[in-house]
Each structure stands twice: as structure tokens, then as C-alpha cells.
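Appendix B. Chain record.
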Amino acid sequence: MLKDREIAIVALILFVATLSLSAAVSKPAYAAASANTDTNEVALTVRPLAILNYSAGAGEKLDVRINVTVFGTVAIHGFTMRLSYDPALINCTDVGIGDLFQGFGTTSSSSADNVEGNVYVSANFSDSSQVVDNNGSLATLTFQVEGRGDTHLHIYDAFLYDSTGGDIQFTAYDGYFNNKFNFDVTMPLTLLAVTFSSLYLNLKTEKKLKQVLESTEFRVRDTALLVALMAVMVTLIVIVRQLSTVLMVLFLFSYSLLLYTFGYLLSKRWYVGIVPPAVFVLLYVFLRDSSIWTLYLSNVYGLAFAVLITLYLAGVFDWTTTAVFGVLITAMDIVLVLVTKTMVQAASAAVSLSLPVLVSLPLVPLISTGTGLLTLSLGLGDFFFAGLLAIQTYKKFGKHLAIASVFGMIISFSLFETFILTYRIGAFPGTLMIICGWVPFALVQTLRDWRKTGRASSEKVVSGK
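C-alpha cells predicted for this chain:
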């Protein structure tokens, strides 16, 4: 078995590798950035891709661009296109030519039909030899909101051509507007299931894991240092792009070690223990660029790792270090997600390597945008955080309060998620969403215990007299 010092180092690696990249993010399932940069492909994209904003009521203005992104060597001389929408929800009040065709001799035409719900726009250079081969906007549109609901901003009858009049092939990515009240049940239920699974399985595996960890526990100083190292790692991933390979190796090593540990604990045979990590690495190497991995296996492994990490590391915390960790990690999450945005950039770097650092699930009720179903992504660190709080609450206050605190965390998470989806907040610190539901239960019970302790002390003093 590993020694105390070695276990502490391994736990630290697992923490930094799996808990550093954590945020709640809503996004379309597929993005225009997925176009193949190795070919002369052109992407025609409505920006923003998805607008979810309940505050955009009647009379509000929406600014939309139709952008072109060129991958490779493509020269555009002109274009013509139409965009459809629901006229009962939005009306087009202004159509303009984008920056790519401004400042040159151009011929343009545009019109908006708010009865049928479509916009027509076209432009081309007057000089037959003039072309553009860079990225930018082809058209700018202004809409006025007329009601509530949702609508696709659908590109159709589009034609891009070069200086000879030849057709330029492209891929279109439609936009989506929604000013309804939105909510989701998928991610809250998933968080509930993972948290309860971690709580239940911890009761079954805690003794075995303590034998492996040899009763190693973090001190307050260790916890503070750990959070500081996590913040440093997230920043380095963003600043030093060359760390992508190191990040991949670190994750694969950490996950493989975690799978081996549990495989060995269950079988007591090393050759059985190496099977789960070997399967994981092989699947990652051969399938990471496929939809099977992106849509399914990555989520399956992400959920499995969330439970295993919680079971593995819950034992190195006690009530005090959990409270300190909760405060520090939430503060770090708020700064890195909402202020510096480095957490989001670091998570994007990990996702670009197809590493299972986030669990991404479609919302229910389903919201179909122009580029696929709208999904919500939650970092493994957030799953771990909820599980850790539940386990430590069980140890401190018992089963009933632990279960109540779990439901409190889920309700809080659901309310925050509804706010994010309704007002399209984007990335948001998941730890804040979770801890806000846990603190009231822990605080009330702690105050009750203090009162009981105070009364007991007073009774002893009276009886002593």
C-alpha cells in the first residue's frame, strides 16, 4: 500500500486535475466553431447563436449579425440570402450591410417582410476583381420584440459566390431567440442522484478506503494551500497554451489511478484492477474524436469519476476542513468564473482535448436551437462538492439532516439554473449554486447544538452549586 505522504500527493494530483475546472454553463449542443479548418470550408452563422432573455419584453431591441467565417483560402465577391423568423414574436426594423462590404464600392439591396417573417439582403463589389477572404459580418439586423415565445432565425436561399460567379459552398448555423420562462429538471435530478449515490456508497466503502489512505487527513493549512494551487493551475492553463499536453497526461494518469484503486479494492487482484483504466485509456485514444465519446462516453465516465472522486477523497476531510474548503473554493470559483473568466477558458481547453471534465446534458423540457439541443454543463468539481458536503453533514449531524441538506442543495441549484436559463447568464460558479442550499441547514443545526451545549453547561453549574 502507499504511504501517507504518497497518498497525500496522489490526492493532491486528483484534486488539481479534476476539481480545477468547474462551472455551470448553458450552451447549444453544437457550435459553428466545429467547422473543419483543414479544408476551404465557410461557415455562415447567426450571432448570437442563442439568445435567452426573459427581460427582452415587448418593445425591446435585438441586434443580430450574420457572420461569415472562412477556413482556408476562399475569396468572396458577393452574396444573397434570406432569414426567416416568427413575426408574431419579433419584427425586423432595420437591415444593414456588414463590415466586410463597407468602405468599398458595393452594390447592395435589402428588405424586410414582417407579415411573412423574413428578411432579404444582398451585396457585391462593383469591381469584378474585388474579393474578401477574411472573417466578418455580411449583414446586421435589428429586431423589435412583439411578444413572448421562441423562434429560430433560419438562414435560407443563401448564395455566396466568387469573382467568376462560381458558387462557394458553406455550412449555415441558424440563430435562436427565446424570452420565455425556462427551467430544467435533467441536471438537478442528475446532481441529486450522484450526491445520494456518493452518500450511500461512502457508508459501504469508507472503512476500506481508510485502510488505503492510512487515516490521512487534510489540515486547514493543507486545504488553503490546495485551493491556492488549484487557482494557480487554472491560470497557468490559460496563460501557457503548451500545457495542453501536460493537462491531458495529468488527467489520464489521475483517472486511471482512481479506476485502478477501486478495481483493486473490489477484487484484491492487481491484474483485475488494471482492466478499468486500460479500457478507459483505449476508449479515449480511439474514440475521443467521435460523437459516441462526446455525447455519451464522456458523460458516463464523468459521472462515474464524480462518484469515485467523492468516495476517494471524502475521508481526507473533516468538518472543519470541509467548511474552510467550502468557503475558499466558492470564493475562488466566483473570482475565476465571473471576474477573470479564466475558469471558463481553462475548462474550454480541457474540453477541446475531449477530457471528461464536464457532464453535459440536454435540458428537459427540450430547447432546440439552430445548432442543436440546448445543454447545460456542470464540472466534476461541483458534483464532488455536493457529495463532500452531504457526507460531512451525515457524519456531523446524522442521516436526516444530511438528506434535508441534499434536497436544499438541489433546490438552490435548480433556482440558480432557472435564473441562468431564463436570463442567459452564461457561465456561473456551480459551487455558489450548491453551497447556498447547504449553508442554512448546517448553520441552523450548528446554532441548535451550541444552545444545547450552553444549556447543558448551565445545568451542570447549577447542580454543582
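Further analysis of this model is presented in Appendix C.
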